[in-house]
Automatic annotation (TrEMBL):
Organism: Thermodesulfatator indicus (strain DSM 15286 / JCM 11887 / CIR29812)
The protein's annotated pathway: Amino-acid biosynthesis; L-tryptophan biosynthesis; L-tryptophan from chorismate: step 4/5
InterPro entries on file: Aldolase_TIM (IPR013785), Indole-3-glycerol_P_synth (IPR045186), Indole-3-glycerol_P_synth_dom (IPR013798), Indole-3-GlycerolPSynthase_CS (IPR001468), RibuloseP-bd_barrel (IPR011060)
One Gene Ontology molecular-function label: indole-3-glycerol-phosphate synthase activity
PANTHER family: INDOLE-3-GLYCEROL-PHOSPHATE SYNTHASE (PTHR22854:SF2), TRYPTOPHAN BIOSYNTHESIS PROTEIN (PTHR22854)
Biological process, per Gene Ontology: L-tryptophan biosynthetic process
Family per similarity comment: Belongs to the TrpC family.
E.C. numbers: 4.1.1.48
Indole-3-glycerol phosphate synthase domain mapped to chain residues: 5-251
Name listed for the protein in its UniProt record: Indole-3-glycerol phosphate synthase
A Pfam family hit: IGPS
């Protein structure tokens, strides 16, 4: 039986083929001045990349009421360092248009969160207003990861290179990733263990910016990450379910209102 990543990648291959047949739609954000994700993550004592995500394979529908522009404004007002926006449609109920909509209302660096397997998706990300893309080591051969990273830089974007274990971490370091995301979610069981981040952080030099991803719920989690030398977290569900996103983000960072 196929695991969720394999299923998602099969749909992506079809999506990419269809996109290539249709050709690229160029949008106003093609020449938009880019914001640096690296700089934004370095500027804060602890940085939060706040995620806009309607649904996910592990949790189903997360947000019935879903207004990407409003959520982006709330995140920016609450002090997020950057915004991650899901664009995958079948599994996360995202859309490329959500990325463009969010770009219209925020000055924060914007990450296209999707399963990128082809250069055309990076061109699309830029055209729809992204400053950075997610590249998942588990979804790519090291050669493809390298060529996608080159394309990313060539287009003036940045990459969050995502790993799940030590082997993937070595590949990310080998290709010269500047920002590495450690995903705490096991893609076979959906189990989330923050210890994944804590264990792998010790193996990474200080020049690389580490982002812990998935399952971060409260200030205690952030304290553990900070103690392990991690400078940033990507948080989706906790913020998406919060009625008062500003208060929740503040509590995550400071522990109290
Ligand atoms: O979230 C899932 O179910 C999922 C399944 C398969 C591949 C990726 C998946 N999630 C993507 C993410 O990495 C998360 O959206 C992100 O790290 C935020 O996680 P959370 O704070 O737990 O919403």
């Amino acid at each position: 039986m196929k695991n969720i990543l394999e299923k998602i990648l099969l749909t992506k291959q079809k999506e990419v083929l269809a996109r290539k047949e249709r050709g690229l739609f160029f949008r106003p954000f093609w020449d938009y001045p880019r914001k640096s994700l690296e700089k934004a993550l370095k500027t804060q004592d602890f940085a939060i990349i706040a995620e806009i995500k309607k649904a996910s394979p592990s949790k189903g529908l997360i947000a019935r009421e879903f207004h990407p522009k409003k959520i982006a404004e709330e995140y920016e007002n609450a002090g997020a360092a950057a915004i991650s926006c899901l664009t995958d449609e079948p599994f996360f109920h995202g859309h490329l248009e959500f990325l463009a909509a969010v770009r219209e209302v925020t000055k924060l660096p914007l990450l296209r969160k999707d399963f990128i397997i082809d250069e055309i998706q990076i061109e699309e990300a830029r055209a729809f207003g992204a400053d950075a893309v997610l590249l998942i080591v588990a979804a790519l051969s090291p050669e493809k990861l390298n060529s996608l990273l080159e394309k990313t830089y060539e287009l003036g974007l940045e990459a969050l290179v995502e790993v799940h274990d030590e082997k993937e971490l070595e590949i990310a370091i080998e290709v010269g990733a500047k920002i590495i995301g450690i995903n705490n979610r096991n893609l076979k069981t959906f189990e989330v263990k923050i210890e994944t981040s804590l264990a792998l952080a010790a193996k990474v030099s200080e020049e690389i910016i580490l982002v812990s991803e998935s399952g971060i719920k409260d200030h205690a989690d952030i304290c553990l990450l900070k103690a392990a030398g991690i400078k940033a977290a990507l948080i989706g569900e906790t913020l998406m379910r919060a009625k008062d996103k500003e208060a929740t983000l503040y509590q995550l960072l400071k522990g109290q209102k």
